[in-house]
Amino acid sequence: MIDWLTPRASSFAGDIDWLFALILGFVGFWFVVAEVVLFSFLFKFRRRRNARARYVTGTLKTEKRWISVPHVLIILCDVVIIAATLSVWAAVKQSFPPAQEKVRIVAQQWAWTFVHPGPDGALDTADDVTTIDELHVKTDTTYHFELTAKDVLHSFSVPAFRLKQDAVPGRVITGWFKPTTPGQYDVQCAEICGIGHGLMPARITVETKEQHDQWLRRAAAPAGGLVATGPGGTPWR
Amino acid sequence: MALTVDAEHTVPARRRGAPASHDGHRGAPAAHGGHHGPTSFWSTYVFSTDHKVIGLQYMFTGMVMALIGGFMAYAFRMQLAFPDQPVPGFGLVTPNVYNSLVTNHGAIMIFWVAMPMLIAGFGNFLIPLMIGCDDMVFPRLNRLSYQLFFVSAIVLLASFVVPGGGFGGAWTSYPPLSSSGTFNHTPWGAPLWLAAVAIEFIAFLLGGINFITTAMNARAPGMRMWDIPMVVWMIVIASILFMASAGPLIAGAIMLLLDQVAGTHFFTPAAGGDPLLWQHLFWFFGHPEVYVVLLPAMGIVAEVITVHARKKLFAYKTILYTTAGTAAFSFVVWAHHQFVAGIDPRMANLFTITTLLISIPIGEMLFCYIATLWGGSIEFKTSMLFGVAFLAEFLLGGVTGIFLGASAVDVYLHDTYFVVAHFHYTFVPIAIIAVFAGIYHWYPKMFGRLMDETLGKIHFWGTIIGFNTIFLPLFVTGAAGDHRRIYSYQHFQQLATDGLQSLRVVATVGMLIMLLAQTAFIVNFVRSLVRGAPAAANPWRANTLEWAAPSPPPHGNFAEMPTVYRGPYEYSVPGRTEDYWPQNVPA
Ligand code: HEM
Ligand SMILES: [Cu+2]
Ligand SMILES: [Cu+2]
Fold first, then answer.
1. For position B29, what pLDDT does the model report?
2. What CATH code is carried by the domain that includes residue A41?
3. Which of B58, B299, B321, B337 could form a disulfide with B116 if both were Cys (CB 3.0 to 4.6 A apart)?
4. Is the model's pLDDT at B286 over the cut of 70?
5. What is the pLDDT of residue B37?
6. Given the CA of residue B170, which atom of ligand 1 is nearest to it?
7. Ligand 2 geometric centre to CA of A188 (Å)
8. Chain A residues whose beta carbon lies within 8 Å of the beta carbon of residue B408
9. What is the mean pLDDT of residues B21-47?
């Protein structure tokens, strides 16, 4: 359902969309039932001449059933939703598949710095590729990211990945994603971070392994590191 | 049959006698200078200790603040629909102006509208009248509470015009952004904003003590626990909730203020502090706060729907127990606001479970309300329209909360417009719809005149249509990835689409409709003050004690202090000719 609105480009996006649809099924049902009952009461029991309201206390067993039966059913729905949520959460945020690649993400007022390991595949070596507001990743590869912030809170959010993680100064928070669909996607900052909070868009480019290697070689070539400028600040229209 | 349940209610002999404190209180002239009532304008309307005057002072202040907060929403919604065009009547909304507008809109609506209207306004006006006593037990504390509240509003308004402008770090005020002028660029605005919130809290702590003590000690003879009208219970429980949750936040606010102005580093990681600590303190207060404003609104709706459906409240005690359960539970769900904030991911599981479980008592409460309408004889006065609209709209706010309480979905939806839409479907029913239900219902008591029903209905439909037109589209833009607190989406390729932009425009049109509809209310309110038909003491043929007092009640409230003989909701009792049975009428 969410994929009608924004594309899916990571391995767990489908799980999150599925959970959204599951919850929509349950709560949608209850919402419709409650509204239909409410409006039918309003219609059926609107004031008519000479009609007197009934005297109902809601304390008799037969009356209480109208509350206690839905009550039990809601508990059952809750249990199903909780179980589904915990399993998706565990897969997204708790247990990570082993890393095939690493990237470092540093947020600051008001830009993103991305450090890609160069052709040697390791961070903190001479061939690291550092970019501003532009992250390049390859498909079907499990990435672990190290996320931190320099000044205030920020949040690394990639809607197409269904991924969001706050960046906290003084901490390095690790997370993972596995891109699936090539394309260019928005990165937003999801935690208010000052005047330029709306002005720190970045782009994430998901490309095939060959394209990615090509890009890396080009980027790493000149002087061991390159600063590419992304779309930051340029309106799209 | 069902009548047997309440048979004992009609036997005064079995009831508790007059509580000593009730009489004791009445006999304490020091508290408010006897019952002669003040005479000059200043002592009657400005420095009064009369609970009704103080309640109305809170309400008028709340209404003025609501207009200011609404004007801010106008400015930033216009910017979102028509980016970077000067907003008529306001000017250009630059990114920092935008942040400041959003921050203060949120803070004003919660702290200077919802709280004063629901707790302090209705609480002050209604509690003594509904429990049948002449005033609050601490009238001067009450006056001090309003005065502090007034000061806090002035401090807040002052924070917009200081050098650097108003604070723009969101109403949640997360450090380190909020704690340092180098980061937020509002070195004056931020501490003033925080000071305003802190003063406001002190005002409400004073008020809370008063509400709880008054409701527990000054009830009319014969009014037992189960005879207390639901709205009084709800305000009392909300006050307990507020007082129990505000402590950590006040401590946190002092630490934050020290970080801002005295160079401490409680929340600065560079110097060993921890920014997440603030989030825990804030939300430990912040989530219960949602129920602090919800409960009085539910209470108002209980009074309104029983009167206008001529029905006994369905399962009074069940509602009360679920309320107490919800209130207690609301202390253990706070971290659902922090799923992706960097907390231990295992902890999120705990909060997912508690958050989903809290849906049970809340759902049960709503079911009881809907069941109350069954078998009724419903008259759709304006207050009743607002009362049932509360139920219809709040349901959507409630069910959308489940998506956000499920941690794995919140990863995606957190801080998007889906959240904004969700909480407006809770807060607007609470702070706007239920408040209007209450105003239309009690206006005759407050001012002794009836409001105009036609204008009332225009106001109702304008508000409801406007409200849904604003926030239904925002669920969609949120699910499509619009993050909140962003001054313009033109910088994001996936979001700068015509489809999403037209939804944003629709939402803004809804805002214009909703704001415009309020003129019908203002006209009605002011015109009825002078030209409304005079109201009898009990125009709705209601049971609770406030209707036994004259409209408007004089200083000291009742000509003759009432005695209570039964519960508040004995409507349509079989065997009686009249379909209501006031609490104070002997059997
Ligand atoms: C005229 C009616 C209203 C409109 C059009 C409106 C619109 C909005 C919008 C669009 C935002 C999000 C802005 C952003 O994140 O960029 C917002 C935030 C907020 N609103 Fe409203 N709102 C209205 C009434 C209310 C009411 C009645 C309340 C509460 C009683 C309320 C409480 C809040 C809060 C707490 C925030 C969050 C502020 C923050 O992000 O720091 N609003 N409003
Ligand atoms: Cu930001
Ligand atoms: Cu909460």
1. 36
2. 1.10.287
3. B58
4. yes
5. 56
6. 41
7. 8
8. 15-16, 19, 85, 88-89, 92-93
9. 54
**A13-62: pLDDT as tens digits:** 999 999 999 999 999 999 999 999 999 999 999 998 878 899 998 888 88
Q: Which residue of B312, B380, B490 is in closest CB contact with A56?
A: B312
Kindly list the protein residues whose Cβ atom lies closer than 6 A to any atom of ligand 1.
B 70, 73, 77, 102-103, 105-106, 109-110, 113-114, 170-171, 420, 424, 427-428, 431-432, 470, 484-485, 511, 514-515
Q: Are A199 and B83 in contact (CB under 8 A)?
A: no
| Cα separation values, B2 from A58, A164, B309, B414, B573, Å | 9, 55, 18, 48, 10
CA B511 to chain centre: 20
CB-CB: which of B176, B493, B574 is closest to A55?
A: B574
Question: Which ligand lies nearest to the CA atom of residue A191 in the structure?
Answer: 2
Query: Which ligand places an atom closest to the C-alpha of B416?
Result: 1
Residue with the two structure tokens 């759709």: B380
Q: What residues of B are in contact with residue A26 (Cβ under 8 Å)? A: 402
Domain that holds residue A107: 101-220
Asked, for residue A226, whether it belongs to a domain, the answer is: no
Residues of A in contact with B406 (CB under 8 A): 19, 23, 81-82, 84-85
Q: How does strand A101-108 pair with strand A143-149?
A: parallel
SS3 A169: strand
Q: Residues A72, A139: one domain? A: no
Query: Do A80 and A14 lie in a common domain?
Result: yes
* ipTM value: 0.93
Mean pLDDT of chain A: 90
Distance B497 CA to ligand 2 centre (A): 22
Span A102-131, average pLDDT: 91
Given B313, B402, B414, which is nearest A27 (Cβ)? B402
**Opening angle at CA B475, ends B118 and A71, nearest 5:** 65
Do the Cβ atoms of A194 and B168 come within 8 Å? yes
Average pLDDT over residues B564-584: 94
Neighbours of B308 (CB within 10 A): 26
pLDDT digits (tens, 9 = 90+) for B67-98: 999 999 999 999 999 999 999 999 999 999 99
pTM: 0.91
pLDDT of residue B75: 97
Euclidean distance between CA atoms B570 and B579, whole angstroms: 8
Angle at B276 between CA B270 and CA B280, to 5 degrees: 150
Overall number of domains in chain B: 1
State the best of A22, A47, A48, A56 to mutate against chain B, taking most chain B CBs within 10 Å.
A56
Looking at the CA of B474, name the nearest ligand. 1
Residue A45 lies in a domain: yes
Which residue is closest to A86 within chain B, CA to CA?
Answer: B349
Chain A nearest C-alpha distance from B34 (Å) = 41
Q: Which residue has the higher pLDDT, B438 or A60?
A: B438
Residues of chain A in contact with residue B312, where contact means CB-CB under 8 angstroms, are 55-58
Boundary of a domain, candidates A60, A94, A128: A94
CA–CA dist B200, B202 (Å, integer)? 5
The dihedrals phi and psi of A46, each to the nearest 5 degrees, come to -65, 155
Q: What is the CA radius of gyration of chain A?
A: 25
Ranking A1-5, A35-39, A199-203, B15-19 by mean pLDDT, the lowest is: B15-19
pLDDT at B385 over 80: yes
Q: How many domains does chain A have?
A: 2
